[in-house]
Structures are given as structure tokens and as C-alpha cells.
Amino acid sequence: MNLIIRLLLNAIAVFVLANVLNGVNVNGYATAIVVALVLSILNLIVKPILVIFTLPITIVTLGLFMFVINACIVLLVDKFVDGFYVDSFWVALLFSVLLSILQSLLQSFLKQD
């Protein structure tokens, strides 16, 4: 049950950011839920592999390269999900940073229960 609530909160965050940012488009609520699901799956499977391969550059940049990895994950979601469009890498970078902030704010409400 908690997983479904988190997924819906992530979908809300995706939908809100798509309406706020100019370079991100989501066609509807169902697409936002699919984007949240695919984003979660890619973060679970692909992100650890990318982190291992880019560990030296992540260490040299003191972890700032993780922002680039997150933007690449968002661009992968753009390729996989029809109805979700990101204009450029920089928009994906901004989207991923804002999505992380908004997700942590929304999920902090769950921890208060």
C-alpha cells in the first residue's frame, strides 16, 4: 500500500513539474503515472549500473556527476514513454533536480504518520 501511495505522489510531482516547466510535457494523469512507474524501474535497475561505471568521475566531481546520471535517466524515460517529452538535456537536469526536491517534500508527509 505504501508503494502505491509513493508511486501516486511521484506521479503528482511529475504532473506538477510538467505544468511548471516549459520544456517538459505530459499528456495526462495516466501518462504521469506511467512516467513515475518507468522512472522508478529505471532508478532501480539502470541507475546502479551507471553509478558503478561512472564511479571515478563521480568521485572526482565530489558526487555532482550524479545530477548528470539523473538527467540521463529522465531522458531515457522520455524515449520509453509516449506522451512524455523533454526538450533538452538542461531541461532534464532541471527537471530531475526539482523532481527530487518535490518528491522528498511530498514523501516527508508520509513519514509523519
Plain-language structure description:
- The chain is mainly alpha-helical and 113 residues long.
- The protein has one domain.
- The protein contains 5 helices and 2 strands; from the N terminus they run αβαααβα.
- It has a two-stranded antiparallel ribbon with strand order 1-2.
- It is globular, with a radius of gyration of 14 Å.
The number of domains is: 1
Helical fraction equals: over 70%
* Overall 3D form: globular
Mean pLDDT: 92
Class of secondary structure makeup: mainly alpha
Strand content: 5-15%
What is the distance, rounded to the nearest whole angstrom, between the alpha carbons of the first and last residues? Answer: 14 Å
Number of strands: 2
H-E order: HEHHHEH
Number of helices: 5
Sequence-ordered SSE layout with sheet pairings:
Layout: H1 2-20, E1 24-26, H2 29-53, H3 55-60, H4 65-80, E2 84-86, H5 89-111
Antiparallel strand pairs: 1-2
Helix pairs in contact: 1-2, 1-5, 2-4, 4-5
Supply database-style keywords.
globular; 5% strand; mainly alpha; Phage_holin_4_2; 113 residues; Phage holin family protein; membrane; two-stranded antiparallel sheet; transmembrane helix
